[in-house]
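INFO batch 0412 | record 1 of 1 | parsing
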Amino acid sequence: MVNVEWLMVNGRQAIGLDLFILPDNTYSLSLCILRKKGSKISTERSVSGIKDIASLKEYLSPALPVSLVIGGKGLLHKKVARAEGESSYAKASADKSDSLLLQKVLPNANIGDFYIQRTPAGADKHFVSVARKNVIDALLKELNDAGYTITSCSFGPFCINALLPMLPSSAVYTEIATRHYQLNISDSRIVEQSAPPPSQGELVPSLTREGQGVVLTIGEERIDFKSLLSFAVAFSSLLNLHANTIPSVTGSREDFRQKTIFQKTLKVSLAAIFLLLLVNYFAFDHFWKKSNELKSRYSLNQESVQKLEKLKKGIAEKEQFYERTNILTPSRTSFYADRIAAELPEHIKLSRLEIHPKQKSKEEESLSFSSRTVNVKGLCRKSIELNDWMKEIRKNKWVSEVKLLNYSQDKDGGEFNLEIQLN
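INFO prediction complete | emitting tokens
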């Protein structure tokens, strides 16, 4: 594992692809997949000896972003002095600086036909990597047609510079060899690069030997020289170090970044919608069960409710009847009858006395009485006697009015019908 707590690590996974163009225009590819867990970076997969791009699908899903390093035929690397007046290679005008550098590498070359990348090589030097656009564009198109998204593209072995500060302080390397490069190291930086001498083959005496291969040890990671460049470019991608001057690659990286943001936003939105739906489902389920429970209770008690409504209706009818008949008020019928009889004159005879008489109604079942009313029928000899009696009745405080409803006279006397209104 490589501890990178002191660096800002971007992302959780990085894929490095080392593509070397051989003299016969065939490819030699090596693949390295790194994964970040916390502050540690470990190798998830490392494959070398891949012969063509079509074979990559056996080891790598086309949906994943790839950091590419290209070397071999069609690329030229040269160490040159910085342009006059350039205090820092990153501060110079890109077009003017690149044109001056190209003339140092390839005099009279057209800047529009080449991609140029620069790498510091000391206080006043840097490496200039030059590649023909038609070669690189054709290679990128082949990778894109295979479904791979190239988010970073660098030339030559200089991505190894990202690894050099991570080497153990006890190990001082002056030379590092890969399959296609021999590099001289000074102050944790590549200061010279060349092809490996035929006499030494792929091994450099100053490196650690393990069996028939050469390895670098960084933390707990042991990196074989065959996978060194693919490891380095993947590591640079995790550290967000993109050495790229190709507009199409820059556009692909930005498109992939936007796509990643969209996918993450979509996942968060879908998760929020799912959570909202889940909350709504549980709320609906709770109230649905509550509703069914209440409906069940209502069905069980519906008969009792109907009985209660019937009783309420009966009580209301009885209350109306009592109010209409004055049954609830204290009865004074005996008092009224006694007072009327006591004041009755000697020559007047009563034939009928009705206190609170029954009212006439069209409805046979309806029973009501005239409250505060007394009907009196009788016989008298003279009408003047009846008038005097009516006057006497009116003098009583409990009498409101006395009306003569009917009077008939014959030779034997008169027959009358009085209505006494009570207070």
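INFO post-check: Helices lie at 94-105, 133-145, 228-238, 247-325, 333-342, 383-394.
INFO record closed
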